[in-house]
Design brief:
This protein has 196 residues and is an alpha+beta fold. The chain has 7 helices and 7 strands, in the order ααβββααααββαββ. The chain has a 3-stranded antiparallel β-sheet. β6 and β7 form a beta hairpin.
Length: 196
Amino acid sequence: MGRMPGACSRSVLALARASPWKLSGIGPAAPGKPPLPLAAPDFRLAGAFALRILPAVNWQLPPGGILIGLGTDVIEIERVQGVRQRQGERFLHRVFTEEERAYCMGMKYPDKHLAARFAAKEAIAKAFSTGIGAELGWTSMSVYHGARHEPLVRLDEKGIALLHHVGGTRILLSLAHSDSVATAFAAIIRCDDSDP
């Protein structure tokens, strides 16, 4: 096997070959035991490949939780940038809420953040199985950050009515972007505890 970037030590490679489940966190946990912890590169150590153990992620819904719908979307940032340059304020006002425009346009690279929100709106519309249109408009959804900087969704009256119509109580959202693409994943859930 060739040398990995970042001068990965032989002992880490040997450990990875011997016990990949322990490094990846993938695989079965023992019955009655919590999920295996995930491992991730520790980028604080420049030029070296080190692992740090992350706390286990709980992917279970709250008690009584039911998954209503899933949606995902990926968009090229360059595409959003091109539309914004051609249409300017018209595009921004048609697709994004005032809250979203203020946040994104205050960033050093606004198109990355606009693209992530565009993808989020598409993912939410797919989770509702409606698409963007009469039932759910572009500005019926506003993506903002919570106390832990997690992405949250604020719905207008039309969006809240649709959420109740499909039997949902919450929308969970995940956003990501690189230099070239933005992606979003949305889940509509119903749970007994309707706190966000």
